[in-house]
Specification:
Rossmann fold
Length: 257
């Protein structure tokens, strides 16, 4: 592999609009093909590798994304730090659509996904106590606050299988457990990055209130159309935050991740 990158970004295809002189590369892996070709470009003097986790045409539903291939391809390119924005639902009234949450914990409610590189005969048991990079979390919070977005420090994301949304009873259960946001792709993406020693930060853009809020009949259950609408309305904020983070990131950092 001759192409190299310093920083990786997972996200939607809208990120392409920020990249000039893009070179797309095919990165084969022992785990099959990634979701799509990886676009490499120079941003703020740093080589950035971008991969739409669902594919350019959104052809991979959350439970079919080739997570292991995606992360392994980034590692093959030399990526040591990944920024991973996601569309997510809120489980708390104080976390509103349009807000950002820089998550610090996850709860896995998925099943059947290939979620480790240690299938044997090489077996390891890594710690998941602190799955997200504290250094990148602090940077995301700093930039978000400077840019005037409402950004929450920390939060537990419960990761559901998808592609369906939650029932009201499921959503009530998740809220009752004290969890903050809900998403379909954070697991196993974050833990595979951890296994590969890649620093990883999730910036959750809140698009909805999941199946509604208890006692609030004025808040309807989430729809796919509403998620896309809110995400598009806030897409420029997401991109601006990511670009400023890339500008400030040290590509030579030595991190405990």
């Amino acid at each position: 592999m001759t192409k190299r990158a310093d920083i990786g970004v997972f996200g939607g295809s809208g990120f392409y609009s920020l990249m000039e002189d893009v070179e797309e590369v095919i990165v084969p892996t022992p785990y099959g093909a990634p979701s799509d070709k990886i676009a490499i470009a120079d941003i703020k003097g740093k080589k950035v590798a971008f991969l739409p986790r669902h594919g350019k045409d959104h052809q991979y539903p959350p439970h079919k994304i080739p997570y292991r291939a995606n992360l392994y391809a980034m590692k093959e390119l030399g990526v040591r730090q990944i920024i991973a924005p996601t569309a997510s639902g809120s489980l708390k009234p104080e976390i509103k659509p349009g807000d950002f949450v820089v998550t610090d914990q996850f709860v896995d409610r998925t099943w059947g996904r290939k979620d480790t590189y240690y299938d044997g005969p090489n077996v390891r048991h890594i710690s998941s106590a602190h799955p997200y990079c504290d250094r990148l979390r602090e940077l995301a919070l700093e930039v978000g606050q400077e840019q005037g977005v409402t950004i929450h420090d920390g939060g537990t994301v419960v990761v559901i299988q998808g592609p369906r949304f939650s029932s009201k009873s499921e959503s009530r259960w998740f809220s009752g457990m004290g969890w903050d946001v809900i998403n379909m792709t954070q697991y196993p993406e974050v833990i595979l990055a951890k296994e590969l020693g890649i620093c990883y930060v999730n910036i959750a853009l809140i698009t909805d209130y999941d199946a509604g809020l208890e006692g609030r009949d004025d808040i309807p259950p989430v729809t796919e159309e509403e998620v896309l609408r809110v995400f598009e309305e806030n897409n420029d904020k997401v991109k601006s935050l990511i670009i400023e983070m890339i500008k400030r990131m040290d590509v030579c950092v030595d991190c405990s991740c």
